[in-house]
């Protein structure tokens, strides 16, 4: 388990770029055009991949959460997260955007969430229409994959809407759903160092902006604590799983990452660990612990 007091400092991640402030402004300006906000999270790190200012931006707008990459997450933990969000009055749908699992349920959840608004419009004499949404999330959690899956790979642009600039497009995603697709996506503020590490583990942060060696050792320490059997199975480890550099070197030897003289090539071993984890070869893993029941209302 990671001790947050001893987590390595990642100063280069303490930022909130100006173009992301522009994205935040665009979201605020266009909220009135949609019925539902779809928040895209990584199912392995539902808390770490959430933008901490999103609730403030969205306000009372109805919201549906997508727990994407659910195929890579601990299934039992994902069920617990769905219940956690439900306790806060928010529908959360596990999705594998690459293979399409959960997409049908997501469309139904969005339509249900938008129904009070669309029904009200009809009651006031407007023509019945599809639910309208925008998808928000931090980079590299699968927005493009989700949109492609929702659209079936054939995105149909809808005619211009009043108040929408040329930089934004309406895309019809089947008969039940229209998406307001806008440039820009929200980054988190990296105030929680453990959340920043979880983002680094999953590849949401570019590997070039942090010390990969230190991060890989912390990833192995986390897996050794929470999912040691996955390490043993993947790397054919016997007995008690070692820790730190010793574990990395053993993995390197098992994978043949050797230099002249039989020394382990640490960089190759590090990349193997990162790739294996991110591709799900180390098993279905959830890193974020479920918050206390008392904090469920914070999701509202």
Automatic annotation (TrEMBL):
<dbReference type="InterPro" id="IPR016478">
    <property type="entry name" value="GTPase_MTG1"/>
</dbReference>
<feature type="binding site">
    <location>
        <position position="184"/>
    </location>
    <ligand>
        <name>GTP</name>
    </ligand>
</feature>
<feature type="binding site">
    <location>
        <begin position="140"/>
        <end position="145"/>
    </location>
    <ligand>
        <name>GTP</name>
    </ligand>
</feature>
<dbReference type="InterPro" id="IPR030378">
    <property type="entry name" value="G_CP_dom"/>
</dbReference>
<keyword id="KW-0547">Nucleotide-binding</keyword>
<protein>
    <recommendedName>
        <fullName>Ribosome biogenesis GTPase A</fullName>
    </recommendedName>
</protein>
<dbReference type="Pfam" id="PF01926">
    <property type="entry name" value="MMR_HSR1"/>
</dbReference>
<dbReference type="InterPro" id="IPR006073">
    <property type="entry name" value="GTP-bd"/>
</dbReference>
<dbReference type="GO" id="GO:0003924">
    <property type="term" value="F:GTPase activity"/>
</dbReference>
<dbReference type="GO" id="GO:0006412">
    <property type="term" value="P:translation"/>
</dbReference>
<feature type="domain" description="CP-type G">
    <location>
        <begin position="20"/>
        <end position="188"/>
    </location>
</feature>
<dbReference type="InterPro" id="IPR027417">
    <property type="entry name" value="P-loop_NTPase"/>
</dbReference>
<comment type="similarity">
    <text>Belongs to the TRAFAC class YlqF/YawG GTPase family. MTG1 subfamily.</text>
</comment>
<feature type="binding site">
    <location>
        <begin position="68"/>
        <end position="71"/>
    </location>
    <ligand>
        <name>GTP</name>
    </ligand>
</feature>
<keyword id="KW-0963">Cytoplasm</keyword>
<dbReference type="InterPro" id="IPR019991">
    <property type="entry name" value="GTP-bd_ribosome_bgen"/>
</dbReference>
<dbReference type="InterPro" id="IPR023179">
    <property type="entry name" value="GTP-bd_ortho_bundle_sf"/>
</dbReference>
<dbReference type="GO" id="GO:0005737">
    <property type="term" value="C:cytoplasm"/>
</dbReference>
<comment type="function">
    <text>Required for a late step of 50S ribosomal subunit assembly. Has GTPase activity.</text>
</comment>
<dbReference type="GO" id="GO:0005525">
    <property type="term" value="F:GTP binding"/>
</dbReference>
<keyword id="KW-0342">GTP-binding</keyword>
């Amino acid at each position: 388990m990671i001790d947050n007091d001893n987590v390595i400092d990642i100063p280069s991640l303490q930022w909130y770029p100006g173009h992301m402030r522009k994205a935040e402004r665009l979201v605020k300006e266009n909220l009135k055009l949609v019925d539902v906000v779809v928040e895209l999270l990584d199912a392995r790190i539902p808390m770490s991949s959430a933008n901490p200012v999103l609730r403030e931006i969205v306000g009372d707008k109805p919201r549906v959460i997508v727990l994407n990459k659910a195929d890579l997450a601990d299934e039992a933990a994902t069920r617990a997260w769905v219940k956690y969000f439900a306790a806060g009055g928010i529908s959360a749908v596990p999705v594998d955007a690459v293979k399409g699992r959960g997409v049908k349920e997501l469309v139904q959840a969005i339509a249900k969430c938008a129904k009070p608004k669309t029904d009200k419009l009809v009651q006031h004499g407007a023509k019945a229409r599809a639910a309208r949404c925008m998808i928000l999330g931090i980079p590299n959690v699968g927005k493009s994959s989700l949109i492609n899956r929702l659209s079936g790979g054939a995105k149909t642009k809808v005619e211009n809407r009043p108040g929408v600039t040329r930089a934004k497009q309406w895309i019809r995603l089947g008969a039940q759903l229209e998406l307001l697709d806008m440039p820009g996506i929200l980054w988190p503020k990296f105030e929680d160092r453990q959340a920043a590490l979880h983002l680094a583990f999953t590849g949401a942060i570019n590997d070039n902006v942090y010390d990969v060696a230190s991060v890989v050792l912390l990833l192995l320490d986390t897996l050794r604590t929470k999912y040691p059997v996955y390490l043993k199975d993947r790397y054919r480890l016997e007995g008690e799983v070692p820790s730190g550099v010793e574990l990395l070197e053993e993995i390197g030897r098992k994978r043949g990452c050797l230099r002249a003289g039989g020394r382990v090539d640490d960089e190759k071993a590090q990349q193997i660990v990162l790739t294996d984890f991110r591709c799900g070869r180390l098993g279905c893993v959830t890193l974020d612990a479920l918050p206390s029941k008392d904090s469920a209302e914070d999701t509202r």
